[in-house]
Amino acid sequence: MRERARPPDDISPTEFFTSWIGEAVRADPDRSAKLGDTEATIQFELGGNPGGVFVVRVEGGRVDGGHGPVPQPDLRVEVDVETWRALNRGDLSAPEALLRRKVHIHGSFLLALKLHVILG
Known about the structure:
Blueprint: H1 13-26, H2 29-35, E1 40-47, E2 52-59, E3 62-67, E4 75-80, H3 81-89, H4 94-99, E5 103-107, H5 109-113, H6 115-119
Parallel strand pairs: 1-4
Antiparallel strand pairs: 1-2, 2-3, 4-5
C-alpha cells in the first residue's frame, strides 16, 4: 500500500487548502478513484493562529480548495490549528480527535467518514 502524501509541518493553512490538497489528490489516481462520484462542499473552521475559514469542493474525482465561508456547506469541520497539524502529521487519528472533542463536525456524518480519502 502506498504511503499518502503528507504536507510539510510548517505549511500554512492557506497554502494547504488553496493549493496543496488539490495537487495531492490530482497526483494520486487511486485517491481520485476512491472519491468516485462524491460531490460535496466542506467548510473547515480553524481556530488559533494562523487560523481561518477554508472550503474544499469535491467533484468528479477532483478536490479544489479556497477561502470560505460558504452559505450551505455539506459538512462543517471545526478544529484548532494545533490539532489540525497533529492530524496532518499522523500524530493523532481522526477517530481519536473526535472522541477527545478536538474536532467537531456538523452536517453529513457519511461525508465526514470520507474525509480521510479527501484529505489523506
